[in-house]
Design a protein that fits this description.
By secondary structure, this protein is α+β, with helices and mostly antiparallel strands. The protein contains 6 helices and 17 strands. The chain has a single domain, classed as 4-Layer Sandwich (Metallo-beta-lactamase, Chain A), CATH 3.60.15.10. Strand 10 and strand 11 form a beta hairpin. Helix 5 runs antiparallel to helix 6.
């Protein structure tokens, strides 16, 4: 069997029985439910859940219903090398695969951080494409496979798209920059889109409310300075900052640092 953690949605390698623990959920950036760790499989998940494939802003998104694990949706991003799947969801059934094939298939999958590793190897095998994961987060790969391509450094080009390692939430925390039009930043929750669309935020642990150091947030904002973007696409359906994205990141980082220093915000 290929066990899937019910809390984070990450698929593990083949085993006769589920692991005793999920290292991703035991880490301070995630959590183990009060009732203990639960496991499922792709077959069990497909019996109770389906994927919605629909537009989200300028892109096509794929998200699972009812909500499973962390609840993120993935985005299909056209590029010069073909479609890039940004992030991943766990469920992959025939209907989803057919919908993606109708869009032109996938040339690559790119993941922002380990909470969204999901069933990335399953997707890579189905579409015969690599999965790009930053080498700084290699220890969190729960299903090792030759389809996983570890990349190093601060940037990785995918046609006209750019993977940018920002760190923060995880050492290898990555965002995807799309230069089309006025520019879009696909941020996962490395740069978190919050309910007030005039701001974003940054955290070491979201569920456990552990902030990042001021210097790390300033470094992240500085790393985004060379890139032009108006729009920010977050990790869930309709989590979109529609305009002034670059300005919003900068002023949000400044506000975050003031808050940590006990200054008025």
């Amino acid at each position: 069997m290929l066990p899937i953690c019910h809390t984070c949605g990450v698929q593990f390698g083949a085993s006769q029985r589920p692991p005793e623990t999920c290292p991703i959920c035991e880490d301070a950036r995630q959590w183990v439910p009060v009732g203990g760790q639960r496991w499922t499989t792709m077959e069990e998940l497909a019996a109770t859940h389906v994927n919605a494939v629909r537009r989200d802003g300028e892109l096509v998104g794929i998200g699972t219903a009812p909500r499973f694990a962390i609840g993120q949706r993935t985005l299909v991003v056209p590029s010069a090398i073909g479609n890039v799947l940004w992030e991943c969801v766990t469920l992959l059934d025939d209907a989803t695969a057919e919908a993606v094939e109708a869009l032109g298939g996938l040339a690559a999958i790119a993941i922002s951080h380990p909470h969204y590793h999901s069933a990335m190897v399953e997707w890579a095998h189905r579409f015969d494409c690599p999965v790009l994961v930053h080498a700084a987060d290699a220890e969190w790969i729960m299903r090792p496979d030759d389809a996983i391509e570890l990349w190093d450094g601060d940037t990785r080009e995918l046609g006209e798209l750019t993977l940018l390692r920002l760190g923060g939430h995880f050492p290898g925390g990555t965002v995807l920059h799309r230069p089309d039009g006025t520019g879009t930043l696909l941020s996962g929750d490395i740069v978190q889109v919050i309910p007030d669309r005039g701001w974003v935020s940054f955290m070491y642990s979201y569920p456990n409310l552990i902030p990042l150091p001021a210097a790390e947030v300033e470094r992240m904002a500085d790393a985004l300075e060379p890139f032009a973007f108006e729009t920010i696409q977050g990790a869930w359906w309709e989590t979109t900052v529609p305009r002034d994205g670059k300005t919003i990141v900068r002023r949000s980082a400044e506000r975050y640092v003031r808050a940590l220093q006990g200054e008025p915000i």
